[in-house]
Design a protein that fits this description.
By secondary structure, the chain is an alpha/beta fold. The chain has 10 helices and 21 strands. It is globular. The mean pLDDT is about 95.
């Protein structure tokens, strides 16, 4: 397949007219002009398929329920909305439940769903958290870091856990970070740590921050907190939820201006209400009310989002983030942050996971592994 004359988001993070040749599900060539007949995409924009490394579910489904048919339905929904690679994200749940979930997700990640997204790993969000910053995590399931439990869950998943979240102030956190970083990216999350503790965690092996600003200590001029440690770090990748609810647009613009250079991963943090009408739903065993895109526990705590990553990316741009930076933060930056090197770029050798948009980045067509699927 040869796509010609598109405005392409190149591997060095700029838009420029080019042709793209695809063979056997991968990108073979990208060049200003490629000889041969192909489909003319003049006036259209071609970007990589999006990579959401933090999503709990959508269309009534939840990755924390071991239900393969629901998994397939979710997979197709993500792909139709331009998300072609995904980390299935779990919650703080009892160990026995997590064991069943990890085994089910490990098996499902090996399945190729026709018209569905690729499951590139598991994001283990919990249960090693601070009860003071539990957010929408169920307090009764929160425990201190347990290396043995992680290894058991990793084994059951077939080695698919790519992100493991932890509050670094907890007993045993240092040992956990130093051991588990050999198998998964360690992310600071749901934490009451001070600046010094967070900085120490980043120095000994943590390299990621889960939904920056939310469920952590904030930056204050005499107490920089976790946020200050992450913004100061030269290595950490920070997740941002740019749905317009979790963060003020100015906070999003400011964070991009401080970090930049591929150190931001836009995420959806979506839950089962994504793609569904207003109503009552569930997240991590807790009831959630969704009204006009805002998902909250009954006590008013924000509980994930009801927005997909493509919408979050476009909202970041509407908030003033340059399109080049927002696209990078929704495609290759999250993939690279967890060690995935075959998706998120339009470059030779990469998966032909692509989104065709208009000049305003409104989604029009999607390809997964080089095959066009139903869109929207």
């Amino acid at each position: 397949m040869l796509l010609k004359n598109a405005r392409v988001f190149h591997a060095d993070y700029h838009f420029e007219k080019a042709d793209v040749r695809i063979e056997n599900g991968r990108i073979l060539e990208v060049a200003p002009i490629i000889a041969g007949a192909g489909e003319d995409l003049s006036g259209k924009t071609l970007i990589p398929g999006l990579c959401d490394i933090h999503s709990h579910g959508c269309v009534g489904g939840d990755w924390s329920r071991p239900d393969p048919e629901s998994y397939r339905k979710m997979s197709r929904f993500y792909a139709k909305n331009g998300i072609t690679a995904l980390c299935a994200t779990t919650m703080s749940l009892p160990a026995a439940e997590l064991e069943k979930i990890m085994a089910a997700l490990g098996r499902f990640s090996e399945e190729e769903v026709p018209g569905g997204t690729r499951i590139i790993g598991i994001n283990m969000e919990g249960p090693f958290f601070s009860k003071k910053k539990k957010g929408a995590q169920a307090e009764e399931n929160i425990i201190d870091p347990d290396i043995g439990l992680f290894h058991k869950l990793q084994s059951l998943s077939g080695g698919k856990i790519r992100l493991c979240d932890i509050a670094p102030e907890l007993p045993g956190a240092d040992e956990f970070i130093q051991e588990v970083k050999k198998e998964a990216v360690i992310s600071i999350a749901h934490t009451d740590a001070d600046y010094e503790t967070a900085r120490h965690a980043l120095c000994i092996g943590a390299s990621h921050a889960t939904h920056l600003y939310n469920a952590m200590t904030l930056l204050v001029h005499r107490a920089p907190g976790v946020v200050g440690a992450v913004l100061e770090s030269k290595e950490a990748v920070a997740e941002l939820i740019s749905d317009g609810i979790h963060l003020h647009p100015a906070a999003i613009r400011l964070t991009f201006s401080i970090l930049g250079d591929g150190k931001i991963a836009l995420i959806s943090d979506s839950m089962e209400a994504c793609g569904m009408p207003n109503g009552e739903y569930e997240l991590g065993g807790q009831p959630v009310t969704v009204c006009d895109g805002r998902a909250t526990l009954h006590d008013g705590t924000i509980a994930g989002s009801a927005t997909n990553l493509f919408t979050c990316m476009r909202r970041a741009i509407s908030f003033g983030v340059p399109a080049e930076e927002a696209v990078r933060a929704a495609t290759c930056a999250p993939a690279e942050s967890i060690g995935i090197r075959d998706t998120g770029k339009i470059a030779p050798g990469y998966m032909a996971d692509l989104c065709l948009t208009d000049e305003e980045l409104r989604l029009q067509r999607v390809w997964v592994r080089g095959r066009e699927i139903e869109c929207g």
